[in-house]
Write a structure and sequence with these properties.
With 144 residues, this protein is an all-alpha fold. It has 5 helices and no strands.
Length: 144
């Protein structure tokens, strides 16, 4: 089996990922680990969205105004959460695309490695910690 073209048979554990040597960075095995993690996260978000749709559809109207207001507030909150999740789904799809085109794991600003630990914590990261801090500082200075 050619490991550079085919997915590895077994995925490394998180501990193995963190202990891997530097020259193993974004190897086919590591990319398979992150792809699996991103797909798992995407599937969980899609299942959650389906549950929300079912919940909103199945909810019965109530004649009591205070109960109705409470239900509407719950729906608003749920929809706000789903909107954040929709944005995360887009970031997950972009991360999978970066895996496919060989750009995953590399900082968009500096071209340096983002780092396995940061990618484990935030698999959709596109900046190294330092570049992210600079980005957020610039954003604060612009008031956005």
């Amino acid at each position: 089996m050619n490991e550079t073209l085919d997915a590895p048979r077994t995925l490394p554990t998180q501990e193995e990922m963190l202990a891997a040597p530097e020259d193993d960075y974004m190897s086919p095995r590591q990319l398979a680990f992150f792809r699996a993690r991103l797909i798992q996260e995407r599937d969980a978000l899609l299942a959650s969205a389906k549950d929300t749709t079912t919940h909103l559809r199945d909810n019965e109207a109530t004649p009591d105004p205070s109960d109705r207001a409470s239900v509407e507030e719950d729906h608003t909150l749920e929809l706000r959460v789903r909107d954040r999740e929709r944005k995360l789904l887009h970031k997950i799809d972009e991360a999978i695309q970066r895996i496919d085109n060989g750009e995953y794991g590399w900082c968009e600003e500096t071209g340096e490695p983002i780092g396995v630990a940061r990618l484990i914590a935030r698999p959709t990261a596109t900046f190294s910690v330092e570049a992210q801090e600079r980005y957020e500082t610039r954003r604060k200075m612009r008031g956005g």
